[in-house]
Amino acid sequence: MGKTIDQVRPDLPHLVTELPGPRARAVIARDERVVSPSYTRSYPLVCEKGEGAMVEDVDGNRFLDFNAGIAVVATGHCHPRVVDAIQKQAARLIHMSGTDFYYEELVLLAEKLAEIAPGRVDRRVSFGNSGAEAMEGSLKLARYATGRDKIIAFYGGFHGRTMGALSLTSRKAVQRAGFGPMMPGVVHAPYPYCYRCPYGKEPESCAVECVKFIEDTLLKTVAPAQEVAAIAVEPVLGEGGYVVPPKKFFDELARVARQNGILLIFDEVQCGMGRTGRMWAAEHFDAVPDILAVAKGIASGLPLGATVARADLMTWPPGAHASTFGGNPVACAAARTTIALLEEELVENAARMGAHLMDRMLDWPDRFPVVGDVRGLGLMIGIELVQDQATKEKAPRLRDKVLGLAFERGVLALGAGDSTLRLCPPLVITRDQCDFAIETLEGCLKEAIAEA
Ligand SMILES: Cc1ncc(COP(=O)(O)O)c(C=O)c1O
Q1: Tally of domains in the chain
Q2: How many angstroms separate the alpha carbon of residue 147 from the centre of ligand 1?
Q3: How far is the CA of 189 from the centre of ligand 1 (A)?
Q4: Is it the case that residue 223 has pLDDT exceeding 50?
Q5: Which residues on neighbouring strands pair with residue 263, listed in sequence order?
Q6: Does the global pTM surpass 0.90?
């Protein structure tokens, strides 16, 4: 206290009030009266503004954002080039509806996404406003293109909350309870090496078992092979706990899909757009989806989703699928600038900073008996907290305690899975910021262990 924000480093946290401060408390009290109680807030952060990887709250407290608005602000908060692109486009044309009229921003972004999508295949793009809509488009297209109705998804997966996407989502009962029945025709398989997977602990054999379950059980019982339109999978499990499957999983999925005329939908809503240190997570596994769902990081915070499909699949007729706001020119302009920044330097920075974070945390399981695992790709890192390493029993309360303490020390992180600390900072993060976050988290972990 006493120091002004200007007297301390602007790229690191600086707290000037108790948390939450008086203004934050007032906003939260009003929020509690009028905003849907279904929102899950992990701690009382009330944002006022953001710049790069820093966020300032309404009381002037500055935080280091290690969750990037839940893996959204890929280029950091309010990147000047993104802001400039948004302002210029907003002054030119805010809306016209790409469903009924033409504008070049939509075409330019579709061309770019078609160019950078994984695999050397011609692509077409359908736009929506969110990850859930990108998945809705993917599901509808898979059904339309194959004339089949069944979809195979994975336990622990999160694909959004609209009814089609929700039918695939199987992360937590609370996300589905009271909303049934779901869309018919969706069945689930275990996701390899995930906390809900019943198979062994060794990733490769586990991946083989998971696909075997699809082949030998699902396709031969509840989802006859000739009726399955698609297998929908997150290449890295996001909300389910930042789980990275082995390459074998994708090789096996591709084999089963090919042999049975089933399409592969990759949900890269969270793991795409450079987050894993490659533009697409699929690239780590040499895997190529038939349909790719993209959102979150695509437009640095403006609402946009895209279904990027093989051109020979996207043959639905006029009127079959569209969205009034999907591919809005301002969001498209933000997305094109985001992709340019990713290509120029940020994907590479994500790989470099991700490797640095991993290097510094790889010995945590040896140093802390409550750390079961540190895993991830690029800037998509999960730290699994457990009661003890032998049983691998989850430690959700310890995880939440660490998140709360980190907030009190100015570092914003979130959970994923049942007891994973999720690190997904903006791709502009610096080495000093990474070091600060690690040292803070380490301190919080020690304090939480001491208190437990
Ligand atoms: C992998 C994945 N798919 C889909 C979604 C849904 O995205 P949205 O919340 O934009 O609808 C999410 C959101 O967290 C996600 O992580």
Answers
A1: 2
A2: 26
A3: 19
A4: yes
A5: 230
A6: yes
